[in-house]
From TrEMBL:
GO terms for biological process: L-tryptophan biosynthetic process. HAMAP family: PRAI (MF_00135). Keywords: Amino-acid biosynthesis, Aromatic amino acid biosynthesis, Isomerase, Tryptophan biosynthesis. Gene3D superfamilies: Aldolase class I. Signal peptide: none annotated. This is N-(5'-phosphoribosyl)anthranilate isomerase. GO terms for molecular function: phosphoribosylanthranilate isomerase activity. It catalyses: N-(5-phospho-beta-D-ribosyl)anthranilate = 1-(2-carboxyphenylamino)-1-deoxy-D-ribulose 5-phosphate. The keyword Disulfide bond does not apply. InterPro entries: Aldolase_TIM, PRAI_dom, RibuloseP-bd_barrel, TrpF_fam. It comes from Pseudomonas graminis.
């Protein structure tokens, strides 16, 4: 199995972004959902992206954003990928001239394979925990046994991951990548650099 990729999401400052990169993260996530405690402004995002070294992917997370607003942000923040984390249809994810990831919030009874197939042009599918009224960042895991063995898209596993459980998650699910936010924080929106290093060490050792 090839190395599992990793994204540290909910980055709000340059120091946390560089700590993630130094620990070996492949990507950082910037949240452009105003209701999130991890929300970043355009100015914050521009400063963070400008500070990153080469070969680190920048991912912008959006929740049911208006097309004009999202496009305007893409015009001024050089993001590599879009992460749609709301109720966006496949059609609503198209037309931005960027590769995209679609997040699905998992609960028992979902046909994950069919949902994955519906987003035919996505470059990956992120599976997160379903909690009513909360698009993401819940800090809660879901039952990984619900994930089908073979999906049509690369699988990014999220939802309640920490340094204590990510090795088990990788061994059980065999994801393409793992995504963490709350599991490496000291408070919402601020990362704990020791937790980032511990998480990445567990990923690399899995």
């Amino acid at each position: 199995m090839s190395a599992v990729r990793s994204k540290i999401c909910g980055i709000t400052c340059i120091e946390d972004a560089l700590a993630a990169v130094d620990a070996g993260a492949d990507a950082i996530g910037l949240v452009f959902y105003p209701k999130s405690p991890r929300f970043v402004t355009v100015e914050q995002a521009q400063a963070i992206v400008a500070a990153l070294p080469p070969f680190v992917s920048t991912v912008g997370l959006f929740v049911n954003a208006e097309r004009a607003d999202l496009q305007a942000l893409l015009d001024v923040v050089p993001l590599d990928l879009i992460q749609f984390h709301g109720d966006e249809s496949p059609e609503q994810c198209e037309g931005y001239n960027r590769p995209y990831i679609k997040a699905l919030r998992v609960q028992a009874g979902d046909d994950i394979a069919a949902s994955c197939d519906a987003y035919a042009n996505a470059c990956g599918i992120l599976l997160d925990t379903y909690v009513a009224g909360i698009p993401g960042g819940t800090g809660e895991t879901f039952d990984w046994a619900l994930i089908p063995k073979h999906l049509s898209k690369p699988l990014i596993l999220a939802g309640g991951l920490t340094s204590a459980n990510v090795s088990q998650a990788i061994a059980q699910v065999y994801p393409y990548a793992v995504d963490v936010s709350g599991g490496v924080e000291k408070s919402k929106g601020l990362k704990d650099h020791d937790k980032i290093r511990a998480f990445m060490s567990a990923v690399h050792g899995a």
